[in-house]
Amino acid sequence: MHLVETRDLTHTYRGNVHALEGVNFVAERKSRIAVIGPNGAGKSTLFKHFNGILKPASGEVLIRGEPITKENLREIRKFVGIVFQNSDDQIFSPTVEQDVAFGPTNLGLDEATVAHRVEEALHLLGVEELRHRVPHHLSGGEKKRVAIAGILAMEPQVLVLDEPTAGLDPQGVADLVAFVNRLPDEYGMTVIFSTHQVDLVAEVADYIYVMDHGRIVASGTVEEIFTRPELLARTRLDVPVIPKLIRSLQEGGVAIDMAYTYEGAKKSFLDAYTRRA
């Protein structure tokens, strides 16, 4: 049984705009899944189906093997938490602490449990010092962390992040990568995220779906996707910097193993240096 699954999912907006066409998607427990593609590919529309914000025109969405219904919608939204690209769409309370508490409070939890969840979420995102601040006075990166904390306080099993690096500085991106990489092993969460930053994908994802014009045009591991430059070119994406550099060195006659992450590249360069010494 998959945690999240779509079967031949289609969605049409007003004006007969086909946003999704026959999408088949699967997310397993404790996985890290990247959904990449150009603007307008359908990534955000797909994500909004995962917890019933949008309804399919045809096909179905299954959460833990069960279709989303009016009767289980509340439970689905506890199980699948979505953080939107624009944090201002999710932050509306007078203070950060109240905003993070909003979700668990509306789950009907008692005050002690809500307070505990808020503390845990603030600590995990490193925003304890912001608890009494007005959210709309925060920086873009701070708002992003508060929005994620608000979802985590509901203790979802699936965390969906729509363009989570948008508006973040390099340190904010590095912090986000470290945070996401902790979630599967330490908290048993599945993370599904979209991004235009292909260099980020190899550092975070176990599996990749490539979308274009409302369809999934390819899926596979990091290696399987990023060894297909023709696919990336067709979908207006680029090969990440690290494999691009190593491929260039290989073509120049340097005996170096392919790598996709910073740590992998470091090992490849050290191994190549050792062989030459």
Task: Give the termini separation.
Answer: 51 Å
How much helix, percentage-wise, in residues?
A: 40-55%
Report the structural category: alpha/beta
Give the CATH superfamily of the largest domain: P-loop containing nucleotide triphosphate hydrolases
- The average pLDDT is 92
Number of helices: 11
Low-confidence stretches: none
**What CATH architecture label of the largest domain applies?**
3-Layer(aba) Sandwich
CATH fold field value of the largest domain: Rossmann fold
Shape: globular
Strand order of the largest sheet: 6-7-8-3-9-10
Q: Based on DSSP secondary structure assignment, what is the total number of beta strands?
A: 10
Q: Gyration radius, to the nearest Å?
A: 20 Å
Q: In the CATH hierarchy, what is the class of the largest domain?
A: Alpha Beta
The ordered H/E elements are: EEEHEEHEHHHEHEHEEHHHH
Function: Probably part of an ABC transporter complex. Responsible for energy coupling to the transport system. Part of an ABC transporter complex. Responsible for energy coupling to the transport system.
Keywords: ATP-binding, Cell membrane, Membrane, Nucleotide-binding, Translocase, Transport
GO molecular function: ATP binding
Subcellular location: Cell membrane
